[in-house]
């Protein structure tokens, strides 16, 4: 979209959208983008490309202030503080830890979160799914129900598994621990859960797992994501069957993943940005749950671990990597 078309679109809206306000002030809209990755990656590019498809040209009709945090809690807080101080028009942030950091930094700048696990209501990010209220809305990545499904998948993959260690890189919503414990008990699993928010947490957790030698490992969200290569290597060296949240773990050599499509979440988040820049308020934009979950299995890794994947599980998989 060229500058005249952009100005024409902004000027024709009934509301006073951020884009129009920025133009009237003699500048183009600026959005902050906080990623848990260590550098701009393929998933980030999906988000930026979707914005471009919607008519926003980076550096021409929109400015991006990017921050790559490595999913460290302290870096999320620093990035949030910097962007709020710079008075960006909107902030996009990945993960529950990131969303909480930004929300604590501002109750005025619109916030769009991506891939928040659990309930954003219980986390205190929004008032309700349908009517978020305040300045925050976005896309969730999972729920206690999908976490329970992961435990069922572990049991289906490893019927004799009784001890599972779960590395969680995201903060827990109220009630999540109890629900997971109930789900674990229902399938005959003793569950040990460990929060991982920085390098020291990860070092300590992996050492503890190596000593305890559980039957399986589950890994979800937050700080563990940019450290996925290390975790996959750890699982391989310890011959530890591991269930991951996102498919790229499995593409990198992990055993199995069950979770939402990051590509789909990134693409849908761009539409939230478009709506807000055109005048919509986060308070009125419902929080969306994942619409596309993927089950991905790496049979080559299974063979190395000496596992036989049940045929019923292979038939349900969205992708089997051989």
Characterise the protein shown here.
- With 322 residues, this protein is of the alpha/beta class.
- It folds into 2 domains: 172 residues, 3-Layer(aba) Sandwich (Rossmann fold), CATH 3.40.50.2300; 145 residues, Response regulator (Rossmann fold), CATH 3.40.50.
- Helices cover 42% and strands 19% of the residues.
- A 7-stranded mixed beta sheet has the order 7-6-8-9-10-11-12, with helices on both faces. The protein has a 5-stranded parallel beta sheet with strand order 2-1-3-4-5, sandwiched between helices.
- The longest helix has 16 residues.
* CATH class descriptor of the largest domain: Alpha Beta
Structural class: alpha/beta
Q: Could you give the count of β-strands?
A: 12
Q: Biggest β-sheet: count, sense, barrel?
A: 7 strands, mixed
Write out the strand line-up for the largest beta sheet, numbering strands in chain order: 7-6-8-9-10-11-12
CATH topology of the largest domain: Rossmann fold
Number of domains: 2
Our estimate of the beta-strand percent is 15-25%
Helix proportion range: 40-55%
Q: What value does the average pLDDT take?
A: 89
Alpha-carbon Rg, integer: 21 Å
Low-pLDDT windows of residues: 1-16
Shape field: elongated
Q: For the terminal residues, how far apart are their CA atoms? A: 43 Å
- Note the total helix count: 13
CATH architecture assignment name of the largest domain: 3-Layer(aba) Sandwich
Order of helices and strands: HHEHEHEHEEHEHEHEHEHEHEHHE
